[in-house]
Specification:
By secondary structure, this protein is an alpha/beta fold. The chain has eleven helices and eleven strands. Helices cover 34% and strands 17% of the residues. The strands form three sheets. The protein has a seven-stranded mixed β-sheet, with helices on both faces.
Length: 306
């Protein structure tokens, strides 16, 4: 698109969720963002119910960017100051739905992503975890899910508070196309830290649990032999469903979305399988679960004891 004078500095995508994905939006922007240095891009939409919708996933990604502002609004913002903008029928219908079906009201009138009812984990809490709190965790758990490409290698650290039935996930590391020596160095760096401010960092040789695969056995041997890392294979046989249910049954899974964005996204988006007629099945599909698997391996002993 060309302009005889000036350029399109302001672009507004109304009903963003009706576009055919972020690729279609980027294609339009590639034609519009030309001829200038300053641009303001606005997106407005009603969030789809399911977290798997491309626009909800994109919102999670955009919220991490310093140059992006995510603003949520609803009729509650104006109901006291300007009720005439809405009208009595609108307000009456909203209040009626609130009384008979609060979940539907939260989605339709507040724009909350309530899910479709098929979320595996309904106990996720996003919370910023301070370094001082992390240093005081008494029961840390560490897990590795092996990968090369396109599946990533993933390392996750968490803390277990059994009395509160609370799991706190506070660190993640991800890599593609890294050799065992390179991923071992990531582990060494992640577990080398000072216990208090001003103290000398040292390697905390905590036990790490990993995916028990033939390729994983070779990598674990390198970790132990060349780097002195304590790593063991986690039990896998017939444990996938049980470990998922154990995690889903916890009172809270606290995830720091800034320290662990990939983990937060996986846990938030994971849904049960749905068949062709839209009915939910008691089966959790594979894929997009590398952090979840690393967490499952990290707590597998707790699962077995529980």
């Amino acid at each position: 698109m060309k302009f005889t004078k000036g350029y399109a500095a302001v672009c507004w995508f109304e009903e963003l969720d009706q576009f055919d994905g972020i690729e279609a939006v980027r294609s339009i922007l590639n034609s519009l963002r030309r001829g200038g240095d300053d641009f303001w891009i606005f997106y407005s939409y009603n969030p789809p119910r399911t977290m798997w919708s491309w626009v909800n996933v994109e919102c999670l990604e955009r919220a991490k960017k310093a140059d992006t502002l995510v603003r949520r609004s609803s009729y509650l913002d104006v109901i006291d100051t300007h009720p005439e903008w809405l009208g009595e029928p609108f307000i009456d219908e909203a209040e009626y739905l609130h009384d008979v079906n609060e979940t539907a009201w939260r989605w339709e009138y507040l724009g909350e992503v309530t899910g479709t009812g098929g979320n595996v984990f309904t106990n996720i809490i996003d919370e910023r975890l301070s370094l001082s709190r992390i240093r005081n965790f008494e029961r840390t758990r560490n897990g590795v899910d092996w990968g090369w490409f396109p599946d990533p290698w993933r390392f996750v650290r968490c803390a277990w508070e059994p009395s509160a039935r609370r799991l706190l996930i506070f660190e993640e590391h991800s890599a593609n196309r890294k050799t065992p020596a390179e991923t071992a160095q990531i582990l060494l760096d992640a577990m080398t830290y000072a216990d208090e401010d001003g103290e000398e960092p040292y390697f905390h040789n905590e036990l790490i649990w990993a995916d028990d695969t033939p390729d994983g056995k070779q990598q674990m041997a390198v970790y132990r032999r060349e780097f002195g890392i304590r790593i063991r294979p986690a039990r896998k046989a017939r444990m996938r469903k049980l470990s998922y249910e154990w995690l889903a049954g916890l009172r809270e899974i606290v995830i720091d979305p800034v320290r662990c964005p990939k983990t937060y996204e996986e846990f938030t988006l994971k849904e049960y399988l749905r068949n062709s007629d839209g009915t939910w099945e008691d089966e959790i599909p594979d894929g997009q679960d590398h952090s979840i698997d690393a967490v499952r391996y990290a707590v597998m002993d707790d699962v077995l004891r529980g």
